[in-house]
Amino acid sequence: MQTQTPINTPTSPKQTKGIKPFLKKCKEQRALLWMTVPFVIWVFIFKYLPVWGWTMAFQDYKPARAFTEQEWVGFKHFLFLFTDDRFLGVLRNTLAQSVINMVLGFVTAIGMAVLINELTNIKFKRVVQTISYLPHFLSWVVAAALVSSVLSIDGIINEVLMGLNIIDEEILWLGIGEYFWGILGAAETWKNVGWNAIIYLAAISMIDQEQYEAAKIDGASRIQRIIHITIPGMKSVIIVLLIMNIGYILESGFEPQYLLGNGQNVQYSENIDVFVIKYGIAMFNFSLATAAGMFKTVISFIFLVAANSLSKKMGQGGLY
Amino acid sequence: MLKKKHLFLALIMMLLLAVAACSNNEAGNESDSTDDSEGTEEVVTYKFFDASGPATDINTNETTLGKRFEEETGVNFDIEHIVGDVNQKIGTMIASGEYPELLNAEQSTDAVIDAGGFVPLNDLIENHAPNLKEMYGPYLDLMKRDDGNIYVISSGAPHGYAKPANLNQGGWWIKRSVLKELGYPQPETLDEYFDIIEEYTTANPTIDGADTIGFSALTYDWRFFALSNQPMHLAGFPNDGGITVDMESQVATVYGDKEMTQRWLEKLNQVNDMGLFDREAFTQNYDEYLAKITSGRLVGFFDYRWQVGQAMNTLAEDENFYNDYMAFPIVFEEGIKDQYLDPVGFTASPGIGITSGTSEEDQIKIIKFLDHIAKIETQKMITWGDPGETYEVSEDGRYTRTQEQIDLTSSTEFRDEFGFTYFEWGWPRMRGVFDDGNAVEPPKQPEVANLMYDEGDREFLDAYGIQTFTELFSEPDPRPWFPAWDTPIETGSEAQLYEQRVNDLMVREYPEMIFADPSEFDSAWEEYKTEFSELPVEAYEEVITESVKRKASLVNYE
To answer: Where does the signal peptide begin and end (chain B) (predicted)?
Structure first.
């Protein structure tokens, strides 16, 4: 998509078709075109050239062997992937974790941004914002250790719940598979809500202050101003981010699932990435890992295109 | 205007110069390592990547031992240790085809060999390394891969058997204060072991204010075998991995779905029902598990000493020696001979190998360095040190250490500085006893071991009427194939798939069976067994059996 940017650059309202006007326009905007060249090259080298590596998915790939010496095996690795009993479960987990993360992520980040925006005490606002985005910079290894100790039998959650008499026996949170998606969603939210809110705060700051003043004069309450000015003002950003995130629907993350997963919750924690690490990378079966990667890319692509055209149909404009 | 142009030119010149300077530097380094062929006085530095474990990166010539070796061979190694995941790091090397001259690829050794990353050492050893050849003589055939080539040299060529004084292998540990309180009982069977735990836990529901945990287990990530290896040990087999080998027929059998495993899990199920099994056994990570051991609230556990070393050393350093743990060789029932101590055995992989891309001349220099280490004098130097400094020789030729020497040689600082830390293991090394009767490793020399015991150790040694802690353990029977787990498994084979699958199955099903209501255990076991039967067990057994038979036919440790 990025490669299309030179053609799609914003143009003057009088659009004319045909090769000549196109060349003319190119000439007019050659400075801009030259500026895009490095990025086009970058995209080509890092995003398009590696697609050649997809051939590995159809081989029994052995490292350090020339391309011509590789053994071709057709769809063997895809068959292995799709016929494995666990694959459906793994796919289910990936989608469920991803959807939960996405919904929670959006709602909390937007809510957070709106709330921070409504704060009038600048100092307090800054402190809240800093604290909320600090966990984003923690590595998952550290974050997972924190989560696991908070959730352990003598962890703080159990102590608080016991103290409030909400439960009468400590719960082994990570030992109950059904809870895993929720725990993951909560952990992701804790870690990323502040960070994700930044872009919405930026969107809010773009909103014309006069609108608020006008609404105030018309007698709109604070809540009404949020509903009728702030949120509509963020709409375009929300939609762009939503479409992009839908493209990552099969990327539910790897570290938290790998680090918090265990035998008791494996049926809910194992997602595609963890599966690929176990059966692909760890076993030096790069071909299987590539096949799984290809599968993910194709699904992501379909979702992205679908979301984009749906959004266009609804008159909201799309990514491209 | 002109000035500006000049400035610009000057900038360009500077840039060019900088680039030239950098490339010059590189060329300079190169010549350092290759152009010194004339005399051995010139020192050559090679890169050595060691994936066996994290440690400080160092040049070997910064240690006392390394300096000596450098003076004698003209070779210095710049050692880089693994940080992070081995497969990933070695995978990158394989993909790029760029290796350090000397490499220990640990569990990824087979992959490097498959990718042609190691050069065959057969001729190098034959022509340039008489000492290596002598030390590894009986095992050279074992070191050969299917194609007849030797690619790596592993540490620890067995020369006779020296029984260790302290357990470094698997055992059933019980906290010393528990033993003391119950009048020093000596459990022999699984039932007796858990009776002790039950008795103590019932009498002491809390330890220092925290709930007493009867029995815990390490199940985190790849360490899951610390819960799945027990059936084999309880039935009287040494640690061969996921299989047991019949002494007569030398056939390897997977035991994960056999009666002995059922028996072990059923016992754990009952133990759990009595509230003695740690509820967090399957959710805790490695650190939390170690912390639990050091916390003092854990009555007992099964593990290998080398896995819990960190926790054990922490406990040993504090004042209270009743917090330490003591290990027992537990079996299913009386009459089974325990085999917890490793038999004499040779592990052909992992080991260090010279990588492709190293010039022939450099290969010779490296193999000569390794050969120098294989000399008997050097061998004594890397384990015992210097006579008069780190050990004494008695009139009848026995090696001993004084208390000061024991303290000195166990201080990390001294070990780093002298080079024990870097040379003691991983390089060509023999194991067992020297021809003069002294143990290769000082802690295995009875005279030294005896001195190393403190007041707390003595109390328990005396209470059980033993001289060393391993006296409770039986001598290992000869098993020339040991350990069976070092069998190379081909990448992409059924056997490799089996290993991953069986681990996944156990990780998923063990908690279900152990935490099940006792009335439901049987059905849970049947379910597990059914799933187990769908794995390519035969393919795996076949690969291991073949390797066991091959090894048994090549060596004889009698």
So the answer is: 1-20
What does DSSP assign to residue B318? S
- Asked if B115 reaches chain A (Cβ–Cβ under 8 Å), the answer is yes
Give residue-wise pLDDT tens across range B491-512. 788 999 999 999 999 999 999 9
- Which residue, B305, B243, B302, is CA-closest to B482? B243
* pTM of the predicted model over 0.90: no
Q: How many CB pairs under 8 A join A and B?
A: 81
Choose, out of B283, B290, B292, the residue to mutate when testing the contact with A (most A CBs < 10 Å): B283
A63 and B491: CB-CB below 8 Å? no
Tokens describing residue A74: 């057709």
HSE at residue B110, side-chain half, CA atoms within 13 A, is 15
Topology (CATH) of B170-340+514-520: D-Maltodextrin-Binding Protein; domain 2 (3.40.190)
Q: Does B33 touch chain A (CB under 8 A)?
A: no
Q: Do B88 and A281 touch (CB under 8 A)?
A: yes
Place domain B44-161+347-432 in its CATH homologous superfamily: Periplasmic binding protein-like II (3.40.190.10)
Average pLDDT over residues A172-201: 94
Q: CATH 3.40.190.10 in chain B, residues?
A: 44-161+347-432, 170-340+514-520
Say how far residue A83 (Cα) sits from the centre of its chain.
Answer: 28
Question: Using CA atoms, how far apart are residues A141 and A146, in angstroms rounded to an integer?
Answer: 9
| Other Cβ atoms within 10 Å of A4 Cβ, number | 9
Q: Which fold would CATH assign to domain A85-313?
A: MetI-like fold (1.10.3720)
- In this prediction, residue A177 carries a pLDDT of 92
Q: Which token pair is A149? A: 């100790």
Encode pLDDT of A214-225 as tens digits: 999 999 999 999
pLDDT in tens, B113-154: 988 999 999 999 999 999 999 999 888 988 998 899 999 999
DSSP label of A281: I
Q: Pairing between strand B210-211 and A71-72?
A: unpaired
Tell me the one-letter amino acid at B557: Y
B349: three-class secondary structure by DSSP:
coil
- Name the residue among B112, B230, B225 with its Cα closest to residue B488: B112
| CA nearest to A110, candidates A208, A236, A201 | A201
Whether ipTM exceeds 0.85: no
Instruction: Using DSSP, state whether A258 is helix, strand or coil.
Output: helix
Structure tokens at B262: 């059922």
